[in-house]
């Protein structure tokens, strides 16, 4: 049973490469490529996502306001009660 967990199966014709975690650079090109890429992706998808979200929020707030108005009693119905 001398196999380690990664060596349990033998797969032929597949080459895998790995890099030690001590040799990796976690924040390589973070400011030069990372932030502009985030900005490009944000502006590319903002106009696809924002209008439905705004419409859904406006519908939600309108529905809540109508519901609150319908819960109120009409004061004209109780003017002659005594």
Explained architecture:
With 82 residues, the chain is mostly helical. It has one helix and no strands. The N and C termini lie far apart (93 Å). The mean pLDDT is 86.
What is the topology?
Layout: H1 30-71
End-to-end Cα distance: 93 Å
Fraction of residues in H or I helices: 40-55%
Which series of helices and strands comes N to C? H
Number of distinct helices: 1
The gross shape turns out to be: elongated
Q: If you compute it from the alpha carbons, what radius of gyration comes out, rounded to the nearest whole angstrom? A: 31 Å
Number of strand elements = 0
Low-confidence residue ranges: none
Largest sheet: none
Instruction: Return the average pLDDT rounded to an integer.
Output: 86
Coarse structural class:
mainly alpha
User: What fraction strand?
Assistant: under 5%
Structure summary:
This protein is mainly alpha-helical.
Supply the key terms.
single chain, mainly alpha, elongated, 82 residues
């Amino acid at each position: 049973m001398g196999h380690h967990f990664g060596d349990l199966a033998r797969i032929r014709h597949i080459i895998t490469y790995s890099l030690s975690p001590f040799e990796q650079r976690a924040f390589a090109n973070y400011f030069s490529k990372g932030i502009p890429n985030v900005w490009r992706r944000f502006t590319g998808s903002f106009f696809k996502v924002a209008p439905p979200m705004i419409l859904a929020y406006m519908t939600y707030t309108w529905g809540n306001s109508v519901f609150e108005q319908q819960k109120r009693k009409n004061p004209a119905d109780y003017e002659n009660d005594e």
